[in-house]
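mind reviewing these tokens:
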Amino acid sequence: MLDRLLEKKLQERNSSALLRKLAIKGGLIDFTSNDYLGLASSLDLFKRINDRTEQLGMCRNGAGGSRLLSGNTAYTESLEENLAGIFKAEAALLFNSGYSANLGVLSSLPQRNDTIIYDELAHACIKDGARLSLAKRLNFKHNDLNDLESKIKKSSGHVFVAVESIYSMDGDECPLAELISLSEKYDATIILDEAHSTGVKGEHGSGLAASLGLDQKIPVRIYTFGKALGVHGACVVGSRVLQQFLVNFARPFIYTTAMPAHSLVAIECAFEYLKENIQLQSALSERIRFYLDRVSGLTNRTESHSSVQNLLIGENSKTRQASLTLEASGFDVRPILSPTVPSGSERLRICLHVFNTEDQIEGLAAQLKLITLQESIV
């Protein structure tokens, strides 16, 4: 009986060209991963992590329990102090992923009768965290501070505004300075997800807010290590009061097994490696500029100066086909379909990396122009 019900839902999704499938695609040029700085594939970093783990005598398979039970160590707390320094905050608290960090923050900080207002293009984990909260929730038009202000005026209780520094689908930046001014006007609290700016922006990879000198005006910031840092995990930074509140009320922190020692060492080593190779940030910026120059004539893309670029296609089936066309030419570029993005804005999501050569970028740009031409003819 259950399988029949599930099969019906899968068939509905398949008929709408929305069915997801796991796939292994080897031998293609990577324009899809979040490994912006190439650290996930760095053999030097891999060796450093393993050597450090052995040197510290931390060759243990798992943490053995949650942080509040048997999973806390002096090394974990030392790493959190180090991260707080990198991100210019009083304190940091580690989470197993950026997803769980956002769930923990948004489900626990806003209280009943408070209001969460999030950007309509915010990541699913922000929306899911808001759903788990007892607070009211609203969304505002993407980066539209006039719409946000109108929503704040209609809100009750304390207002929490949840945004991303760099958006994962459009690749554009949040207008942080203006957002801070608006939040101060209404005494609202900004919750900033720095997932796609961690590592690629700021001194030592401290993110967009710190690079703009705005970090001290944003009380809750989330940083993710599974993208440009090439490892795994995340942390929430802010005041020590915030840290202790999350330890006591953030269920994704309280009720999950702590990260193993190897993951903690990987985080420390990744930041050390980036500090020693900070030129990777400028190298990535050069790749982005080169790509933008090569696709300057394409109008069917959103404005982005980050690693995340896109080509708007529209319609799930057409977008899937465009991805397959690129795959046949040797490029790994994945389709992003509705409802992940709003209907009509289905697109190819293109991620640029320091290891993408100019020839590879030239080849991709040529294929994108052909796809755009074919779509216009149709």
